[in-house]
Amino acid sequence: MSADESRWLNDEEHATWLALAGLMVQLSSALDAQLQRDAGISHFEYQVLAGLSMAPERTRRMSTLAAFADGSLSRLSHTVKRLEKQGWVYRTPDPADGRYTLAVLTDTGWDKVVATAPGHVAEVRRLVFDPLTKAQQKQLREAGHRINKAINPDTRCPGAGNC
């Protein structure tokens, strides 16, 4: 598409885009700051621990966990290495297919998630849910599903089937 054929944003779309872009940056930073302050971990580390805590037997393949936490396999490997040093996670070959590596949440890691989750949920509630009406929450959920589907048609939304 040439510059002459570009579908430029109108004023309302531009304002919506700037609000969304600001939200993505500021919300991520705010959640990261809360987790660092209260639990000494990053938001990405929490996503990894939470992803394992919700998995059967607290275990996921590293590739699946990377997708869940929305990070590269390389980033996840570095993060899991740090979490292993804390005793919260360990890695083991997948007995069903040795080409894969499993990440497993330890009992100590479970305790970390249990201790961290209430503060994180309170911050999510304060920043995302409290400012919105029930109708706005539903609209946000539906918009999120539609945007996720546009980004990746194969995306599956936890607890909601396909986005």
Automatic annotation (TrEMBL):
Which biological processes are named by the entry's GO terms? Answer: response to stress
HTH marR-type domain boundaries: 17-149
Query: InterPro entries this protein is in?
Result: HTH_MarR-typ, MarR/SlyA-like, WH-like_DNA-bd_sf, WH_DNA-bd_sf
What Gene3D superfamilies does UniProt report for this protein, alphabetically? Winged helix-like DNA-binding domain superfamily/Winged helix DNA-binding domain
Q: Which Pfam families would you find in this protein's record?
A: MarR_2
Molecular function GO labels: DNA-binding transcription factor activity
PANTHER family of this UniProt entry?
MARR FAMILY REGULATORY PROTEIN, TRANSCRIPTIONAL REGULATOR, MARR FAMILY
Name used for this protein in its record: Winged helix-turn-helix transcriptional regulator
